[in-house]
Queue: 3 jobs
Job 1
Amino acid sequence: MITCRLHTIARLAVVLACACSAADPPRAPSACAADAVTVVATDYQSSGVGTISLSGAPPQLLFGSELGGDPALSISGGRAFFLAREGAGAIFELGACGQGIGSFSPRATGDPATVDPQAVAALPDGSLLVTRFLVPTAIVLSPSGVPRATIDLSSLDGDGNPNMSAADVARVGGAAKAVVVLERLDDTTLYKLALQPASIALIDAETLAVESVIDLKVRNPFGRMDKHGDAEFWLAAAGDFAASSEPDAGIVRFDAAGRTADLVVPETKLGGSVTEVAVADGTRCGAAIVADASAQNRTWVVTFNTVTGEVGAVASGPTAGYDLRGLAWAHDAGTLLVGDRTFAAGQGYPVHLLSRSGDCTLRPLRDVYLPLPAIAFRP
């Protein structure tokens, strides 16, 4: 039986539940506030998943060893997936309140012990396309979670592994296409350096054939994509974290229908490497987390105009180190959530809630405290 750990921190109420085995999905309350936002939190030794409320209700979080120490959150087709990336890996589908409603393996027979699952693209027929960083094949799971196919992308990088990361589904001309980001790192170097431009593979959702590969003309796309409409995606291309004026890094808009990628905000305007991007639905307002080129990689949040690329004022930070992780707009696009790894004694790790006014002005609203740092949100 798995032993759960209850974290008691002033001003923080944690509702805890236990899963029976490492293969079970996490169980959390099946009812939550109408404005609840799913949150994934981790200190990279243990992890939690649950919800926070914008209206001030106490957070509800689950902690369990099955969640691992290197999680990611993937959102596609209105579905959310918690990815435990360590070791053999596991994928848990999450309900609206952060509760586990299904679990899947990212590995097929013959795969190495570790594949490092990165993202899940929910295909229209209920199948799941899972990208894997350490192997050159994406795996496709049937709606019941059984491996039914692999897609070999080894030819899309000279070293034989294109380092798949973010993934989602676009609708182009009435047909569904899986959108898969290929970081194309150099696997022959110790730290897998980003020495060449990244690309995106468009894969037909029915035939699973690679239809086209689009050069992003930027290096090191980092983290998840932010999808808007049927075929628009926003990406953070960090480039080299030790540099802050690279011409091939910044905020990118990818149009799957037109098969084009535009560098909307270059790194030279941001003053550092962009690590996450979130665009408010129905507006020209985007937000980004940026890290400077110092040894500490101090982080801050800025806004930007999605049409002109104009960068606004710093809305949060800078922090003392690489502390801001997790960025998302709430349901109404009026509140921005920002995770922060800066510990506040007697309270925990803050999630900053910032209120949007006017075209794209952000002001502090309040902080919600968690026992572990938040790294990802799902409105």
Job 2
Amino acid sequence: MHRAPRAASAVLALLVACQSAPSAPALAPRSGAVSEPLQVGTPAAFAGDPALLRRELLRRFDQRIDAMAAQLHVEARLVIDEVSPIPYLGLDAAPVPGGMRVTAVYGGTGAKDAGLRIGDVLLRIGDEKVDSHATLAHAIRHRMPGSELALAVIRDGKELELRGKLGKRPEEDEDEAEQFPDLPGAKLVDSESPFTADFERDAPGETPAAFVSALGGHGAPPRWIVAADDAGRCLRQASADRAGIHFPLALARGFEAHDVVGKVRLRYVAGEVDRAGGVVLRYRDPGNYYVARVNAAEGDLRIFRVANGIRRTLPGGIVMGATDDGAWHTLEFRAEGSVLTATLDGKHTAVAYDSGFLQGGAGLWTKSDSITEFDDVEFTPLAAKK
């Protein structure tokens, strides 16, 4: 496979820096790393063990990537604020009968300059009545920065008209869903009904309409197809790409949940590099989700957090459990708040704790060239079970 020339050049540059420099100061390890810092920049630091060199190269790359990503996040917001500024009045308010009671007025804003006070009840902006967060947001954001405003308020039992001007929303790095909770989709709503699939009515050789295919890592596209099994039909992942960072995903179309339980029967059909299968919960994108997976060669059940494409076993998230017998096995994965529980065949259980992802989609997962079959798929929002 061809690698990006820039990436290859960067690796070579770091390799030369690590192996050819006459000396370099010790670099402090990351939290959880080995206690003795590596003396990078000297050939002796990595002599005889390429794994040490790989770890150091990745550590340096990760530092650069993290720093660049943080800077790009900030720059993206600043650029967007320049080309598409958001009108800003500069107040917080809560709904009361007939209007919005002002709970905060921020300095250097149109609200402050207009003379708004905490306790005022804002009735109208221009001709628009404001009696909810949504109507207040509409009255402000559907105007241009610099617009003159007439603000009708009740103060001490009397109606007043104040004059103000909209400014531009100041720089902000908080999550957009927190800043604009009134926007559609700002808050994920759990699916009301469980998702189930047994594939008996799906056409053989095709991807079921109830699933969306995705790929984590790289390599050949997944091939999720309906296949015949010993008791009817099942879903088979049939791509045999041997790439190690190759994670075919089949996502339940339209399903979203916070607290959720997923359950599936699975078995391995083939695979030389790997034989694995798993249940995905709280899926955001192909590089961010939780997965509970079983693996024939390793003989275990693990709970992984996949964050920015990096897969790590969560502390406590591993238990031994054999699945290398060619038989069907039942895998259940449950997410309740920060508690993640995976159970194999009702008897092998791993429990981990993590709050990196608290909501998202659900689906199925394989690795590398695993030809794995799945049947009797269930995803149930726990709120729906109460």
Job 3
Amino acid sequence: MKGQLTVFFAMIMTTILSLAVALIDGARYSAMRLEIATVHQTAGNSVLAQYHRLLFERYGLLFFSTTDLGKKNMEFINYNFARDSLGLILGTRDLLSLRAEENQLESITLATDSAGMVLRRQCVECMEERYGISYLEQMAEMFYLVEEQGLLEEDLTYQICDEEWSEERIRADTEIFLQETMIPSSFHYLEKEALKFLLGKAQYSEKALDGESLASQRTLLKGDGLSTQKGFKNSQWDQLLFVEYILDYTGNYVTPLKDGYLLYQTEYILSGEEMDGVNLWNVVNQLLQIRTCANAIGILADENRNSLLGELSNSLAAALGNPEVEPVIYAALMILWAEIEGIYDVRNLLQGEGVSLLKANEDWLIDVSTIADLAVISDAREIDGEEKPLLGEGLQEEAEEDSALIDKGKMTYEDYLRLLLWFQDGETTAMRLMDVIESDIRELEDQSSFCLDMYADQFRVKTKVKSAYGQEFWITREYGY
């Protein structure tokens, strides 16, 4: 009887011990899986924590170096797998005994990937919490107004004249009219004198970039592009926030950044030339075009100005003995008026004042009598033995008196830059922003070789982990900001 009990007890204990060992081994296997997942996550976060500090402080962007990325990630993994000092002192046994043996970098998203879309996503995320939806709707409404009115369109003269006048005939008759009335035969005279008047004797930056070494000019390293998991759609709101980011983090003529390599960084993003002065010149000409078109619309919309301009054009056409050219004369005088008014508008903008997109009657600085005077004088510097003042010199005092009409509620220089950025191609804007970022960071200590395509914001890694007890695991995870 006792022998039977012993055999039965041995059978029961064998079963119980087998179950216990299986449970313990299963628990250890689950603990290994949990440990691997935790350590892998910790290692990934450790890589992300090594973001470029200076880039974050200056531009609010999070990118980590791709140099030896796979090696660093595996070092972080094995460091966290290692036994702690207390276990070594007590001599306890490591029941998991895990170690990473292989690390494969499956994909990586570089800062310059997807034609700058990766950079744009981070810029947008940087700004998302700073502006409400109502602000974005106001900006979108303003952009729609500019597009609807065609304020960025060229050759407005030809759109104003009657349809039966061909472009070729308008050009020919306008040249004859300008020659006979002795108005300068092109607008280059006005642009040249306008820029003298706008900038005056003020010093402007002569800094220049080394374009060949910057992101927009060199051959960039290629990553795997923007991850679909990020959900960045580059919507209208995203574009608005990207424009706001540029205005917040770059300097311009009115508010230059003292610590930036270029002083007029926003102007560089809009123009793309290497020299500060050239970029400023190009942006001023764009502003003159916008203000000329907006002022032309204002003239056409006002019955009084239309009537006075019509009387003047009829008189000049009669004096020429060719009434048929009256529409051309009207258009030429209207554009002349609109551009001269635009010169003063841009001058006020560059001095930090505001100018409405479509001005009210009381905001106009030039009247039709000024245009009449310009229509009958030549561009010679001397008339009847007296020296003629350059455009701007003779009217400067009047403009200074009338500039008191400008108030803070109107569009500033930065607002007009916002318009230009909105209508510029997003890829071009992003690439030039990269140039600005690289040139600024390279000015800092030990950063002379900084390149954005050597930095990433996301990576996917596959790791092989083995245990001293024979188990083998593969784990794949994606990490990013």
